Every structure is written in structure tokens, then in C-alpha cells.
């Protein structure tokens, strides 16, 4: 599957050029935003960890080995990119134990920047946002055109697609999910099962969002939509009055799309018809997700870009800084600007 099949059309117009992202780990930096006051005491040791070219799961395994505890005693809020420089929190459950020597976990790919105790473990999804610093190198694009496009993105946001990394190499996770769904069976390995279920839900969401980008309704509430605030997981139906809510214009309130699970989406009108049509087209995936016990949830269609700033350290380098809600993809912001190419493939 190609990118257009996995995501959908761009919303801001044709790309303005091309560039390289992640020529080095420092070109893609992520800082987890966690608004939890830590008490300084308790049976959980919280670690602020910097990782370079190391995924979250491998970092957790290294911390568990160094601490001499089972992997289940290690918690983190979310998965971060491997090919990046990332900073995120981990917690270790150490009831009745002193702080362990974690030196064996540290090397050039992992550093512990801070440690403190707390009474509770770190829960998945506990972080509120992620801060990004991206450097696009080998940039081949007109600066004034980029500036105008970035101003546009700052005011209207971007479609909140799940990025291609959610789907594996060339959409391999979706091919596997379709295979399992065709048999209405589940992988035995928990991590494989979780990955494929997540990929399937993300793919279906992207299918709905792609249709709404195509018909221009992704930025607007329609009667029958379910609306949600940027930082809320709850949603409510849109009538005529809700469709005129001024908070829609300031990117605080948004229409949502389905994260498929048990039951039918509670949307109605043209939105309900669209989601029902996608569900019928992908019936085996939807039935598979329901049989797996997934709960129907919603995700905002529009992604506001917080604190967006940019500059050009060099003529062929664009540096972006911004904040996105947890679970959202920085690459879908870049996708509205330029095509990403591999090192050595930019136009001269």
C-alpha cells in the first residue's frame, strides 16, 4: 500500500518541494509533556530518560534488566519513534526496595536525566502532549511559499491522520490485519495482536477522514457529527446550534471520526451515512475489531498545531517547533509542506 492509500489526500494544496527528515537523530526531537506533580516519595521510581535511535520498548527492557525487575514492573506513557532523539518518562515499581544502580542501562543511546519517587505508576496515555523540534535538511522549496503555507497550517490545522509508521513497512500491518480478519481469528502473541488491532482501527479512521478531506467537511461540523474538544476523550452530538459554536473557529472544538469497536457509530445524517458506508466496505475488519472486544471511541478529525514557529538556520534547512496532542503524528504536519525523500535523493 502506498501513502495515499494509507492516509488520504493533502488538505492544503500540492507539496511545495522536497526535503530530508531524520538524516540524524537530532533532526527529529520529541519531548513528552506530562502534567503530573511528582511527590518525591513512594514505591515507584520515575525516570526522565533521553533516548537516541532506541525505541521505547527496548529502553523498557534495558531498564528492567539493569534494575533486576520483571518487565511488567516498567511503565511508560506512550511509544516514541526509534529513529529520533526523544525524552520521555518511565516508572519502575520497586516496593520496599532502594533505588537500583541503573548504570548498566546507560550508554550512548540511553541517558537518565532525572529521577524521583512517586506514589503511583505511570499510566499509558497519561501524557497530555508531545513537543517536537524537526529539522528538514536538503530543502528544495521556495521560502516565501513555505512561510505562507505554514501560516495557513497555523490557522487551520491539518487533517489528523495516523502517520504511515502506524502501518508498518508498505502497510504490512494492514495486510496482516486483513488476513487475520478474513479468518476472524487473533494472533496469540499479545504484542502482535495489539499492534494489528491498533493498525486496523487507525486505517479505518484514515479512510473516513480521507473522504471528509475530499469533500471539504473535515474542518466543519455537520448536523449528526460527534464533537470533541482538543484535549478531551468525551464527545457530544452536533445539532444546528453546536455547528455554529465559535470554539470550532479557534481550533478548540472539532468534528470526530470513528475508532471502530463494538456497536455502531452514534453519528447520524451525512456523517452517519459516510461512516456506515466505510464500515460496510470494510466489514470484515469492523467485525474483527468488535469480536476482539475493542470499544468504540472517537478521534478528532482536525489537528491543531500548538506554538508553531519556524526559521531557516541555513538556506537548505527548515527548523520547525510545535506541540501536538498525545497520539498525534508530526509527520502529517510535514506532509502538508514537502515530500520527504531519502538521503541523496533530493533534487539539485
Automatic annotation (TrEMBL):
Reactions listed under catalytic activity:
uridine(13) in tRNA = pseudouridine(13) in tRNA
- Write the record's keywords in alphabetical order, separated by commas: Isomerase, tRNA processing
Q: Which Pfam families match?
A: TruD
| Domain named TRUD: residues | 157-303
User: Which GO terms label this protein's molecular function in UniProt?
Assistant: tRNA pseudouridine(13) synthase activity
Could you tell me which PROSITE patterns the record lists for this protein?
Answer: TRUD (PS50984), UPF0024 (PS01268)
Q: Which InterPro entries match?
A: PsdUridine_synth_cat_dom_sf, PsdUridine_synth_TruD, PsdUridine_synth_TruD_CS, PsdUridine_synth_TruD_insert, TruD_catalytic, TruD_insert_sf, TruD_pseudoU_synthase
Matching CDD domains, A to Z?
PseudoU_synth_EcTruD
Q: What is its EC number?
A: 5.4.99.27
Which EC class, in a word?
isomerase
Where, by residue number, is the active site?
Answer: 81
* The keyword Isomerase is annotated on this UniProt entry: yes
Report the PANTHER family cross-referenced here.
Answer: TRNA PSEUDOURIDINE SYNTHASE D (PTHR47811)
Q: Which family does it belong to?
A: Belongs to the pseudouridine synthase TruD family.
Family annotation (HAMAP family): TruD
What job does the chain carry out?
Answer: Responsible for synthesis of pseudouridine from uracil-13 in transfer RNAs.
Q: Which NCBIfam families match?
A: PRK00984.1-2
> Under which name does UniProt file this protein?
tRNA pseudouridine synthase D
Amino acid at each position: 500500500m502506498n501513502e495515499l492509500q494509507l492516509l488520504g489526500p493533502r488538505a492544503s494544496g500540492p507539496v511545495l518541494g522536497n526535503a530530508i527528515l531524520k538524516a540524524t537523530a537530532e533532526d527529529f526531537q520529541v519531548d513528552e509533556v506530562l502534567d503530573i506533580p511528582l511527590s518525591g516519595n513512594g514505591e515507584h521510581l520515575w525516570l526522565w530518560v533521553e533516548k537516541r535511535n532506541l525505541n521505547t520498548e527496548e529502553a523498557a527492557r534495558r531498564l528492567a534488566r539493569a534494575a533486576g525487575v520483571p518487565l511488567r514492573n516498567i511503565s511508560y506513557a506512550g511509544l516514541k519513534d526509534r529513529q529520533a532523539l526523544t525524552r520521555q518518562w518511565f516508572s519502575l515499581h520497586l516496593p520496599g526496595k532502594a533505588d537500583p544502580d541503573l548504570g548498566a542501562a546507560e550508554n550512548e543511546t540511553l541517558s537518565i536525566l532525572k529521577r524521583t519517587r512517586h506514589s503511583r505508576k505511570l499510566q499509558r496515555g497519561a501524557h497530555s502532549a508531545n513537543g517536537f523540534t524537526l529539522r528538514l535538511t536538503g530543502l528544495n522549496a521556495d521560502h516565501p511559499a513555505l512561510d505562507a503555507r505554514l501560516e495557513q497550517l497555523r490557522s487551520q490545522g491539518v487533517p489528523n491522520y495516523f502517520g504511515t509508521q502506524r502501518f508498518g513497512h508498505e502497510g504490512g500491518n494492514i495486510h496482516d490485519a486483513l488476513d487475520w480478519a478474513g479468518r476472524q481469528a487473533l494472533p496469540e502473541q499479545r504484542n502482535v495482536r495489539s499492534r494489528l488491532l491498533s493498525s486496523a482501527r487507525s486505517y479505518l479512521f484514515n479512510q473516513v477522514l480521507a473522504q471528509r478531506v475530499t469533500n471539504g467537511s473535515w474542518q466543519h461540523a455537520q448536523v449528526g457529527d460527534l464533537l470533541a474538544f482538543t484535549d478531551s476523550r468525551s464527545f457530544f452530538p452536533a445539532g444546528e446550534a453546536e455547528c455554529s459554536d465559535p470554539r470550532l473557529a479557534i481550533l478548540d472544538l472539532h468534528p470526530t471520526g470513528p475508532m471502530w469497536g463494538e456497536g455502531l457509530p452514534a453519528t447520524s445524517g451525512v456523517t452517519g451515512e459516510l461512516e456506515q458506508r466505510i464500515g460496510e466496505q470494510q466489514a470484515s475488519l469492523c467485525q474483527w475489531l468488535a469480536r476482539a472486544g475493542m470499544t468504540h471511541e472517537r478521534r478528532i478529525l482536525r489537528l491543531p498545531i500548538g506554538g508553531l514557529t519556524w526559521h531557516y538556520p541555513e538556506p537548505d534547512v527548515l527548523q520547525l517547533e510545535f506541540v501536538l496532542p498525545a497520539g498525534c503524528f508530526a509527520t502529517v504536519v510535514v506532509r502538508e509542506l514537502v515530500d520527504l525523500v531519502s538521503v541523496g535523493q533530493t533534487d539539485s
